[in-house]
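User: Tetraacyldisaccharide 4'-kinase. Structure?
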Amino acid sequence: MASVARGMLHCLSMPYSGVMCLRNAAFDIGLKKDTRVAVPVISIGNLTTGGTGKTPIVATVVKLLQELGQRPGIVSRGYRADASGENDEKRVLAQLCPDVSHEQNPDRVAAAQKLIDTASVTAIVLDDAFQHRRIHRDLNIVLIDATNPFGYGHLLPRGLLREPLSGLKRADVVLITRADSASENTLSEIAATVIEQNPSLAQKIFRVSFRPTGLLSNAGARPLSHVEDKPVTVMTAIGNPGAFVNTCRQIGADVVTSMFFPDHHHYTEADLQSARQHAEAAGAPLILTTLKDLVKIPDANDDICAVQIATAFESEKAQQLFRDHLAAAVNEKI
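Assistant: Predicted structure:
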């Protein structure tokens, strides 16, 4: 049965592959044109579906651009926005990058133009836009999750790849995220695959990790020691829940049980009640989640805490080199 299912999914992947190849070819040969805007555009995206850590990387890029004297704005699609018109990523970025304008619109060109006209931004950061080729970008940053780098080696729906690995030819910089969760051999193999697809990236591959920095609940901040050696329940609705479970274990929490929801899920009162009952029954009433989840639980009590993280490059030199790529893209456009 498993082989039959794989065969069916492979058949379904073929038309998807054909559409993606034709679409990319249309841009590559100029049948479709991208649109340039008046300020530098930095795109952050990935080859696969699921969580590669785009949101914390967007926040990092925004802060580095601010250090470079820029006034960046963020553009995103607004996938799974609620009735307010905002989604979880916009709420998280509002906390991580306060006072930074953020426009959500499937039409990224219109969103970028609105930020230029109304917020006087000097640079645009595109969130999850590697496949959105209609807007021209001055730097294409691709994220690859070290824990599942190439989506099981197959295109959707059999695997998690949004497009073939050959898409890496469009990348200017690659960040291997969650590098601390993979062996040196695995990291080297990922880099070798990237270079095979695009040799120009040989000196433009950087490793980053997401380091826990503290806990946050609606009752306030707490140190990581608050959960050390304590039984906890993990509840999350992100693309890579397994990686978050590993993070919780890294900070010393005893993960007894977990409840996973689909990525971008909007929690209902019934969901939260069920999670609390599940946690109590498991003897782990303290619930750990991500900031991306917490921003969707406005009435959460102190029994639900988000693990806050920060992006960490493998070295100060690596971070400086990455910063130099941002500076070059911005200065070249100016």
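Residues 2-28 form the longest helix (27 residues). The chain has two domains: 2-210+312-333, 212-310.
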